[in-house]
Design a protein that fits this description.
heterodimer; A: 367 residues; alpha+beta; seven-stranded mixed beta sheet; 13 helices; 11 strands; B: 190 residues; alpha/beta; Cytidine Deaminase, domain 2; five-stranded mixed beta sheet; 8 helices; 5 strands; 45% helix
Chain lengths: 367, 190
């Protein structure tokens, strides 16, 4: 994350001083470990190509012996990194067996390529190099990977634009800010009633409408009513069902979906791909296609509840110590669960942060 | 292993004999069977406190359109209601309550059980798709200082029968679940 959209970077383009001023936060995508970690390296044998003219024949023959099936991202031949070197090119032969080389010493060319399947004429003696174990997923990983050995990179434009802060337009960021402000408002309402200062809203991005507004309602009589759980039940109530009664919490509201025109909910905005899974009655399955804006990162229970509810995107303000969408776990990225979703952190971070601080001070002063 | 578990639980004032466990699990299995016969997810669970059943949960996801209404979550609410009705302190009650459930609790429920500070969960088969006691994640024993307390698990009670019921259930299509691409393809073949 070397470069994130700076506030006001596009301020002059849209010319609005107001927007320029209000947006003082940055948005960070919370990607999987595979996307965010550094490049893992493995040892491999490479060999100098002394006679450049024989390169294509050697590549063909050696690839037949060592197809490097798990390492299709690695290029077979690279220009020699050492400019003073007498040989112009270097070629990858095969992966080394970890640990073995130290004990037994380097393999010779005839050991690596026995049985005379390859005419080794034109090759120098093999040496060990570190090569990237997996294909790079982000541009940053690519930059690091190719430093070790030339690597193919099929750039995911979506991920790149998320990482460089260009996924959302200024206009969209203004909308996000509006939604998060509603979540902050809900948090304050809850806090005034003695609840934890965490607020959330559920938005249908297709119609740009706020469907549910909720705050943390946990108490000794129900310790599990975290803001996310409240919102999930509010959405169920909007679909005519639900479990809990939030009458004593007037800030927790939902707009009914019953009479919504199903064609409107299927409206697809230009440039967005929306998998709309609707049931026979035209209503979505629980939270399919919806977005959650929440002031603090959800816990394990809430994060998994969002998997079960098929949420599409989560935007949160600040990380939580046991958070499950980035901090302790990244439940939204797990390939072994049946639903994945996108998560972004940092929306109105400062305001969300002071929300938590204020309520901590309140509880301390009341003691 | 079994010994240390028992000792640790005894220290927290929770001890259940193998015979008791067997008997409660038998009842939970019976509940799961009933659920299956009624077209519901075949998971049965009991919350037992001082040899008394405070809650009998079953999955209410379709009925409430709330995907978090798993049997365990429903049972937790029943215990809370019981506490409310009899003027008992929920913290004190949950800390001495044992959950008997036919299938390993999912990640969400495992976190909820931690938050409620339930000390012991006896379960039947593994939950390969969502399990939160080791199958997918081990929330039960994870180091999460802000998420309640870890709990002990005693798995494997009539696991085969519990799995068999799940298999039968998942062969029938859940009409409320969103259509997956895989399922559509299968549909074309038929």
């Amino acid at each position: 994350m070397d470069r994130v959209l700076c506030p006001g970077e596009h301020g002059e383009e849209n010319g609005s001083v107001m927007e320029h001023k209000t947006i003082s936060w940055q948005i960070f995508p919370v990607l999987s470990d595979q996307h965010s970690q550094g490049v893992e390296l493995v040892l491999a044998y490479a060999v100098p190509i002394l006679d450049k003219k024989k390169t294509s024949r050697l590549v063909k023959e050696i690839s037949a012996v060592y197809p490097l099936e798990g390492q299709q991202h690695l290029k077979r031949v690279r220009a020699c990194t050492d400019k003073a070197s007498p040989h112009p090119l270097e070629m990858l032969i095969c992966l080394a067996k970890p640990g073995k080389e130290k004990a037994e010493g380097l393999h010779t060319l005839s050991e690596l390529l026995p049985n005379k399947q390859v005419d080794c004429c034109g090759l120098g003696e093999p040496f060990l190099v570190h090569v990237p174990a997996h294909p790079p997923l982000t541009r940053m990983q690519f930059e690091e990977a190719k430093f070790h050995w030339p690597t193919a990179f099929h750039e995911d434009k979506y991920v790149t634009s998320a990482l460089t802060g260009h996924l959302f337009s200024e206009e969209e960021k203004v909308k996000m800010q509006t939604y998060m402000k509603q979540a902050i408002w809900a948090a304050q309402q809850g806090s005034e009633k003695g609840m934890k200062a965490i607020g959330a809203v559920v938005v249908d991005p297709a119609t740009e409408t706020v469907l549910a507004v909720g705050h943390d309602c946990r108490s000794t009589s129900n310790p599990l009513l975290h803001a996310t759980m409240v919102c999930i039940d509010l959405i169920a109530q909007g679909q005519g069902r639900g479990t809990y009664n939030f009458k004593s919490y007037p800030a927790c509201t939902v707009s009914p979906l019953g009479n919504r025109d199903p064609s409107a909910s299927k409206a697809i905005r230009a440039g967005t791909v929306r998998k709309f899974e609707s049931r026979d009655d035209g209503l979505p399955y629980i939270c399919t296609g919806y977005e959650l804006y929440i002031t603090s990162e959800p816990c394990v229970m809430c994060a998994m509840a969002l998997v079960h509810s098929r949420i599409q995107r989560v935007f949160y303000g600040i990380a939580s110590p046991d958070g499950a969408l980035g901090t302790k776990y990244k439940i939204h990225t797990r390939q072994d669960l049946n639903h994945r979703f996108e998560v972004f952190r940092g929306i109105l971070e400062d305001q969300c942060c002071s929300l938590v601080k204020d309520s901590q001070e309140d509880s301390q002063s009341s003691k | 292993m079994e010994k240390t578990t028992t000792a640790a639980l005894a220290a927290r004032g929770v001890s259940v004999s193998a015979e008791e466990r067997e008997a409660w699990m038998e009842r939970a299995m019976h509940m799961a069977k009933e659920a299956l016969e009624n077209g519901e997810v075949p998971v049965g669970c009991l919350m037992v406190y001082n040899n008394e059943v405070l809650a009998k949960g079953r999955n209410e996801v379709n009925q409430t359109k709330n995907a978090t209404r798993h049997a365990e979550m429903v049972a937790i609410d029943q215990v809370l209601e019981w506490c409310h009705r009899f003027g008992r302190n929920p913290t004190e009650v949950f800390e001495h309550t044992v959950l008997y459930v036919t299938v390993e609790p999912c990640i969400m429920c495992a976190a909820a059980l931690r938050l409620m500070k339930i000390p012991l969960v006896v379960y039947g088969c593994q939950n390969e798709r969502f399990g939160g006691c080791g199958s997918v994640l081990d929330i039960a024993s994870a180091d999460l200082p802000n998420t309640g307390t870890p709990f002990k698990c005693i798995p494997g009670y009539q696991a085969e029968e519990a799995v068999e019921m799940l298999k039968i259930f998942y062969k029938q299509e859940n009409p409320n679940a969103p259509k997956s691409k895989v399922r559509k393809k299968e549909g074309h073949k038929c």
